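Pipeline run #58 for the internal structure catalog. This entry was flagged by the ingest filter as a single-chain record with no existing model, so it goes straight to prediction. Upstream metadata was stripped on purpose; only the residue string is passed forward. Reviewer on rotation: M.T. Logging verbosity set to normal.
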Amino acid sequence: MEDVDDERLHLERVAALDIGKATLEACVRVPAKANPARRAQEVRSFGTTKKEILLLAAWLSEQQVEVVVMESTSDYWKPPFFRLEAEGFSCELLDAKQVKALPGRPKTDKADCVWLAKVAERGMAAKCSVPPEEIRRLRTLTRYRRHLTEERSRERARAEKLLEDAMVKLSVVVSDLHGVSSRAMMEALIGGCRDAKVLAQMARGRMRSKVGALEEALDGAATFSDHHAFVLRMMLDNIDRLSAQVDKLTAQIEELIAPFERQLAQLDAVPGFGRTAAQDLIAEVGVDMSVFRTAAHLVSWAKFCPQVKQSAGKTKGRNSRGKGNRYLAGLLGEETVSAGRAQTRIGARYRRLSKRRGKGKAQVATGNTLLTIAHALLSDPTAEYHDLGAGWYEARTQHRRQVATHLRSLQRLGYRVTLEPVDEVA
């Protein structure tokens, strides 16, 4: 046996919080006064109100705590984290999956905060990314806007089902059931009009070419009863209310995102991204890419790459990517489908992959590409996106085939060839 020296502690003076909705347990571990090689600890209970958290802050200041760590428990971690951060403490958020107590340990709030302090002082868990305050304010608005937009989409789907129930096949002819022409027809139905020809004549613009089809689709309007009109009126009012709220949120978001206009313009230039999508992306990942050392770290954090698990030479699972930020996942899913319709390099990638691997995997792979591009743009304020074109993959494949063909020809003649490109274009 030989004596070995343990590694130095990652933190000398640390506090850990086990947080609930109404109370929290705080454990402070510092060097012992009698023997600095040993540790002294104390556990106290506090409430989660502002007054109680300020008392906690005063106690931590007395103990000269360097870092305060806590688990990401629902949304309950936010009040202590933000208040202590405002008081000047360095706060770190840890993933609950990484700091689980070992089997056989007692499971109490006090034991949990002591274990969390021990994990933190040894640097045994990586901290989670918590964006700065200006990004957090922006994120609150963008996420609520997404919730309202999703609710509006659900309400629109309900309106379509109601029309189907009344044998009004308007959605078969029109692409946007809530466009100007369709909305005028639905308002007329609510007002009591049941004549298919009169309703069809309300078409505007290019819809005028579909008057005949509209008359046939609206032929069942006679079965549109008063109770259908009553419910449809409520649905349309709800859609209008949600649209007005979305517009208010968008106006407020435009004010908050003004300091990041340069980054917004960079992302807006990427095919598939629009101004709204760029706002949502900045709200979720921020603009400081030093948090993610490489694009691969950002992609892994977003869970847009396969999480391979192997044991004894066998791959477990089906390379599922796990669950990441659901707001970011929803955003990238929408943008990849949008980009897939465009004649761009990203669109070509989506279409190539969807043919071979299916649309689900194509969305993940294309989302990976979009995040990699976003990381490169946000890391360099002077960078600009230039699309390589929809034919980039075909041109690269053809170039490789020509090179491989010539190499095989020379090898058959007995030559060993080493290739060196003349320039970057080659």
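catalog note: Residues 393-426 form one domain.
catalog note: The CA atoms of residues 406 and 412 lie 10 Å apart.
status: ready for reviewer M.T.
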